[in-house]
């Protein structure tokens, strides 16, 4: 069943591209933007994450922590972050636990790949409640950045 606004955000602990553990519940007191994306180094994912890079000051001003999440290994994510000069953490959901919890996992992706994250975005408030949820079936589409920003504005 799809995660709905108003629900408690499922907790998770994932490693970031620098091998540090990041636990969602430890982010309480902060607004959080989770951006699930299919695969590092692909065109739409690069465009999405570079948009966040280029607008991170705005998200910081909205009191939001931003995390990119994919099923790529933390080593691939570290290289991707370096090459794109990304200024926020990328989390490896290699074991697909967060993608499953957020109902953001393709059964079958392109070229018969199984278990790839869908492009999805979630805004979680300071109490750990989902305030915005968007899961895209078409990996070629970008999230609704305006809706994410409007949601964050409403929380401040």
Structural class: alpha+beta
How many separate domains? Answer: 1
CATH architectural type: 3-Layer(aba) Sandwich
CATH topology: Glutaredoxin
Oligomer: single chain
General shape: globular
Q: Average pLDDT across residues?
A: 92
CATH hierarchy, class: Alpha Beta
What is the assigned CATH homologous superfamily? Glutaredoxin
Spatial arrangement of strands, main beta sheet:
2-1-5-4-3-8-9
Record keyword descriptors for this entry.
single chain, alpha+beta, Glutaredoxin, 7-stranded mixed beta sheet, two-stranded antiparallel sheet, globular
Model description:
This protein starts with 12 loop residues before the first strand and ends with a helix. The chain is an alpha+beta fold. The chain is built from five helices and nine strands; from the N terminus they run βββααβαβαββββα. The chain has a seven-stranded mixed sheet with strand order 2-1-5-4-3-8-9. Strands 6-7 form a two-stranded antiparallel sheet. The model has no long low-confidence stretch (mean pLDDT 92). 35% of the residues are buried. It has one domain: Glutaredoxin. Helices cover 29% and strands 28% of the residues.
